[in-house]
Design brief:
The complex is a heterodimer of chains A (about 250) and B (about 250). Chain A has helices at about 5-25, 30-45, 55-85, 90-105, 110-120, 125-150, 155-160, 165-200, 210-215, 220-250. With about 250 residues, chain A is mostly helical. The two termini of chain A are about 40 Å apart. Helices cover about 35% and strands about 20% of the residues of chain B. Chain B is built from 9 helices and 11 strands. Chain B has helices spanning about 40-45, 70-75, 95-100, 105-110, 115-130, 145-155, 175-190, 205-210, 230-240, and strands spanning about 1-10, 10-20, 25-30, 55, 55-60, 60, 80, 165, 195-200, 210-215, 220-225. The chains are: A mainly alpha (about 250), B alpha/beta (about 250). Chains A and B meet through helix 7 and helix 8 of A and helix 2, strand 7 and helix 4 of B.
Chain lengths: ~250, ~250
């Protein structure tokens, strides 16, 4: 790119940034004015109220349960879709249709699906599970399909060359290349689903988010603080455990 | 092989009217510049590549036009050693080796990974024979290239094949390891009477190990004879002028 072209590019980026900042009413002054309120908010949270720990833990467990059921069902659903969306495994028409559908479904986040399912099946953790399933299935299907496309043909050919049947080729040439990756992707989505499921309660779809929102709305900051602390510990524990397992998989 | 031809899409002709008879127990070195059709020729022999025209028979069984069942039986009797080893990198040494017994093992049990103890014992013994005893449980991706190629040879050997095809078996290896691998193939040829057909691009290795040298140039057999028949005129026919006596 020419020197002049590069400067024009940077100028365009700067212009878009400034345009967006003005439109979103970014103001350092207002933020500074808000600082005492932020401080006040934090101060009211201390000390956290230990009497609501029971509720917080119950909510946290439900969040984990939503993430577990949602992720497992999504992983199973994503398997056939993943093959359908892999260029080297599906006929062309199926590949393009699947990719298009996956991209469309993935454009909408879990929380939006939760709103939809709460309206459809009512309040509680179940619409949360459904929301996690839909979003996670599409994301996992995309990740699976990329793993399928990256498969090495050499080992597959080698197993075929031993005189193995097609099923044996699939089992010993293909699956050993895919299963560790699939498990790793699925665990990673489980980690992200814990965080996603934690806010599902905001729209009435169960889990720890329900308590965060309720206590904040009741202006019971010490109680909200307890719930948030439990949430932080929960996310850290799951991330730690899951990344340890993933490191051993691949 | 009779009148063997293979055209690839795009009009390139990899094999052009190849006629060859290779007898049991021979050690054949297949030489030629890259793109001469060496890999295609080897892959036609076990049906990994279907020829455009011509006929291939191995051990009296027609490979061309064979039913899937027959083709699997033919492949079971042919070990194939690849340039890139083509091992399952996340599986153990023993698992990779015992895959050579897939065609002999019970289909459903092999799908759940329950291999016959006799097959496992055979795989262990073969690993010891290629100098990898004690590494059974190691994952492939923790081995050196030379060790990996020996696992691949062990996988071919546990098939108890009549023929081993080796496609540039040392091209991905350190030159110092080439002799280890070739020596191993020679021992297999001598001790088990297994026919070995190895494609090689290093002339010295072909002359040192091959009992018969077949030279390919642009898909045609341009030389066929014992190592001492490979004079300058023959190398020029195979590799073109200017590389006589050297490596291509």
């Amino acid at each position: 790119m020419s020197h002049r072209g590069r400067w024009a590019g940077w100028a365009a980026i700067a212009a878009v940034f400034i345009w967006s900042a003005v439109a979103t009413e970014v103001s350092v002054g207002r933020m500074v004015e808000g600082l005492p309120f932020m401080w006040d908010f934090l101060r009211r949270m201390v000390p956290p109220d230990p009497s609501v720990l029971g509720n917080a833990v119950r909510g946290a467990i439900q969040t984990i349960q939503i993430a577990i059921v949602g992720t497992v069902v999504a992983a199973v659903l994503a398997l056939p879709v993943g093959f359908a969306a892999a260029r080297n495994a599906a006929p062309r028409w199926l590949f393009y249709t699947s990719r298009l559908l996956l991209n469309a479904f993935r454009a909408v986040d879990t929380l939006v699906y939760a709103l939809f399912f709460v309206a459809a099946v009512g309040l509680g953790p179940f619409p949360g599970v459904l929301a996690v399933i839909v979003y996670t299935a599409t994301v996992l299907a995309k990740l699976y399909s990329e793993a399928i496309e990256a498969i090495e043909p050499g080992p597959v050919e080698a197993v075929r060359a031993t005189g193995a049947t097609s099923l044996q080729v699939l089992r010993w040439g293909v699956l050993p290349q895919l299963v560790p990756q699939f498990l790793s992707f699925t665990l990673y989505r489980f980690e992200t689903n814990i965080r996603a499921a934690a806010v599902l309660g905001f729209v009435g779809a169960g889990g720890i988010g329900f308590y965060v929102q309720t206590y904040l709305r009741l202006l019971n900051y010490p109680a909200a603080a307890s719930v948030l602390l439990v949430l932080v510990v929960l996310v850290m524990l799951v991330d730690f455990a899951s990344s340890r397992v993933r490191a051993r998989l691949v | 092989m009779r009148g063997l031809c293979k055209d690839y899409p795009g009009g390139s002709r990899a094999l052009d009217d190849v006629d060859l008879d290779i007898g049991p127990g021979e050690f054949v070195a297949l030489i030629g510049p890259s793109g001469a059709g060496k890999s295609t020729l080897l892959r036609c022999l076990n049906g990994l590549v279907t020829p455009t025209a011509g006929r291939v028979e191995v051990g009296g069984v027609a490979v061309t036009g064979a039913t899937p069942e027959t083709l699997r039986r033919v492949r079971a009797g042919i070990g194939f050693v690849f340039q890139q080893f083509n091992l399952l990198r996340r599986l153990s040494v023993l698992e990779n080796t015992v895959l050579g017994r897939l065609s002999h093992s019970s289909r459903w049990r092999s799908l759940v990974g329950w291999f016959d103890p006799a097959d496992l014992a055979r795989a262990r013994a073969t690993l010891a024979r290629v100098g990898l005893g004690g590494l059974d449980t190691r994952r492939i991706d923790t081995l050196s290239g030379g060790q990996q190629q020996r696992v691949a040879i062990a996988r071919a050997l546990v098939q108890a094949p009549a023929v081993i095809l080796a496609d540039e078996p040392m091209a991905s290896l350190d030159p110092s390891l080439a002799h280890t691998v070739m020596e191993l193939l020679r021992r297999i040829n001598h001790e088990d009477g297994i026919t070995v057909i190895a494609s090689l691009h290093v002339l010295e290795l072909a002359q040192a190990y091959g009992q018969r040298i077949i030279g390919l140039h642009r898909g045609r057999v341009v030389h066929d004879g014992p190592p001492d028949s490979l004079d300058d005129a023959a190398t020029t026919r195979i590799f073109g002028p200017g590389v006589a006596g050297g490596a291509a």
